[in-house]
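Researcher: Structure for this, please.
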Amino acid sequence: MSKTVVIGIVFVVVVVAYLAYSSMHIAKYRVEVCVAFHGANQCRTASADTQDHALRSAQSNACALLVSGVTETMQCERQLPASIRWLDRTR
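Model: Predicted structure, token format:
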């Protein structure tokens, strides 16, 4: 193999390793949110870089399993969660 090919392969491996490492450590907050909507309950866990993003993601994921349609989705996501439990981010 030529020197250029080896340098190219090393460069690609370094970039892919950096992207994998940085994407695994971006989530600082992990939360479980339980949502009650029209008599049904659903809990989901989400991780994110901020507390607000984690809460919104977990609630959106729970609502996605409880509702159908845009109107119900908006209603569900605007409700206060039935419960919120902050989890250790190392799990």
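Researcher: Any notable elements?
Model: The first helix runs from residue 3 to 24. The longest strand covers residues 29-37.
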